Amino acid sequence: MVLVCGVTGILFIQINKNQSVTAGFQYTAEEVFTMWNITKQLQIENSELKQLLNCTGNLTLLRSEYGQLELFMNATLYNLTLMSLLINEQQTSMQLEAENQKQRSILFSNHLTFLWGFCNKSTLHCSRCLPGWVEHASRCFFLSSVAEKWEVARQLCISMGGDLAIVLNAEDQAFLTNMTFQYVQAHPQEDFHSAWIGLQDMVKEGTHLWINGKTIKWDVIYWKESEPNNAVPDWDTDLSGQDCVAIVPPK
C-alpha cells in the first residue's frame, strides 16, 4: 500500500506539472494575440492621422469658411441690433407724437382761445401782454397813435381792458419817456406831440390826482421843477390852464 501510494503520488505530481506547463503556453498565446490587435489598431490610427495631416489645405479652407461664416453671423447680429434700436425709436417717436397731439388738442381748444392771444403761435413765445402791448414791471402798456382828448383817451383805454398809465417811480417814468421817444423816431412823418397819462387836476385846480385817487408823492424828483404846472398855452383862449398831464418825448 505504501509503495502504490507512492507511485500514485508520483504520477499525480507528474500530471500536475504537465497541466501547469500547458496552461502557461496558452496564456502566452492570448497575450501575444492581444498585443497584435493593439498594434494593428495603432497602425490604422496612424494611417488615419497621416491622411488628416495630408488634408491640411482642406482644414485651412474650412477655417477660412468658418471665419467668413463668423463675420456673416456678426454682421447679422449687428443688423438685428440696429433693427431693434430702430423699432424702439419708432415706438418712442409714435408715443411722443401721440402725446404731442394730445397736448396740441388741449392747447388749441376753445377753452384756451383767450390765452393764445398772449402768444405767438409760430414761435410759441408767450407774454403777459397782448400783441402790440409792451411789458414793464409786470404791467402792460400800449401807446396809441390816435389823438384824442384826455377823457376820450381814458375811455378808449378802459374799452381795451386797461386805463391811462400811472407813474409809480423813476423806472416807470424812464420807461414811458423812452416809449414815446422810440415812437417818434420810428414815425417821423407823424406830428406826435405827447401821450396822456392818468393824472389830472380837473376836480380841484392845483391838486393833481392819479386815476386811482392818489396824489403825487412829495419825493418825486424825476420831473422838471414845478411840473406839473398850470401853464396856459397860446391856443387856450379861455385861459383855463392845463388840467391833464402828458409825457412829452425829449428832442
Automatic annotation (TrEMBL):
PROSITE patterns per the UniProt record, alphabetical: C_TYPE_LECTIN_2
Q: Can you give the residue ranges of the C-type lectin domain? A: 136-251
Which residue stretches, if any, does this entry annotate as coiled coil?
none
Entries under InterPro entries matching the protein: C-type_lectin-like (IPR001304), C-type_lectin-like/link_sf (IPR016186), C-type_lectin/snaclec_domain (IPR050111), CTDL_fold (IPR016187)
Annotated Pfam families: Lectin_C
Q: Check the record and name the PANTHER family matching this protein.
A: MANNOSE, PHOSPHOLIPASE, LECTIN RECEPTOR RELATED
What name does this protein carry? C-type lectin domain-containing protein
Organism of provenance: Seriola lalandi dorsalis
